[in-house]
């Protein structure tokens, strides 16, 4: 009868893991020794030093200001001028201030046609000019 018979050595069998751990450590050492590491260069994020104070210009460029107010009245450097004669007045001032830039300041409520005419006349004479529209200063 087989029922009463027991197996010897049954379920208590264990596997010895020591050789497997030895192999894992040997492989780990092998890969660490044979690995090549890249020499990556980073980006230099340091800012350059500020320029020395001696580079600051001591003399500013003169400017001639042409202003057209909200009632289409012109003035050149604060002196009232007839709008048809603005370019002649600018020419006289440029004789006194060679190399000066011309700034056209126009009130936002002034006629833009007047600005276009003044700009075209100055461009025809070869005078470079900058346009500024002033807001909220209408008369």
CATH topology of the domain at 62-134: Nucleotidyltransferase, domain 5
Largest sheet composition: 5 strands, mixed
What would you say the CATH architecture of the domain at 62-134 is? 2-Layer Sandwich
Number of helices: 3
**Gross morphology:** rod-shaped
Query: Averaging pLDDT over every residue, what do you get?
Result: 80
Structural class: alpha/beta
Provide the helix percentage: 25-40%
Low-confidence stretches: none
Number of strands: 5
Cα(first) to Cα(last) distance is 125 Å
List keywords for this structure.
single chain, 139 residues, alpha/beta, Nucleotidyltransferase, domain 5, 5-stranded mixed sheet, 3 helices, 5 strands, rod-shaped
Characterize the structure shown.
This protein has 139 residues and is of the alpha/beta class. The protein has a domain at 62-134: Nucleotidyltransferase, domain 5 (2-Layer Sandwich). The protein is 30% helix and 18% strand. The chain has helices at 18-34, 86-96, 112-125, and strands at 63-68, 74-76, 79-81, 101-107, 129-134. A five-stranded mixed sheet has the order 3-2-1-4-5, covered by helices on one side. Strand 1 (63-68) and strand 2 form a beta hairpin. The longest helix has 17 residues, at 18-34. The termini are far apart. The mean pLDDT is 80.
């Amino acid at each position: 009868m087989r029922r009463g018979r027991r197996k010897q050595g049954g379920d208590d069998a264990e596997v010895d893991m020591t050789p497997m751990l030895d192999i894992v450590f040997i492989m780990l050492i092998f890969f660490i020794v044979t690995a090549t590491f890249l020499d990556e260069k980073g980006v230099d994020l340091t800012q350059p030093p500020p320029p020395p104070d001696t580079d600051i210009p001591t003399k500013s460029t003169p400017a001639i200001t042409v202003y057209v107010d909200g009632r289409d009245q012109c003035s050149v450097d604060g002196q009232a001028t007839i709008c048809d004669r603005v370019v002649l007045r600018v020419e006289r001032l440029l004789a006194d201030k060679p190399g000066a830039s011309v700034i056209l300041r126009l009130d936002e409520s002034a006629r833009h046609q007047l600005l276009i005419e003044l700009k075209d006349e100055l461009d025809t004479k070869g005078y470079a000019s900058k346009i500024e529209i002033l807001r909220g200063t209408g008369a």
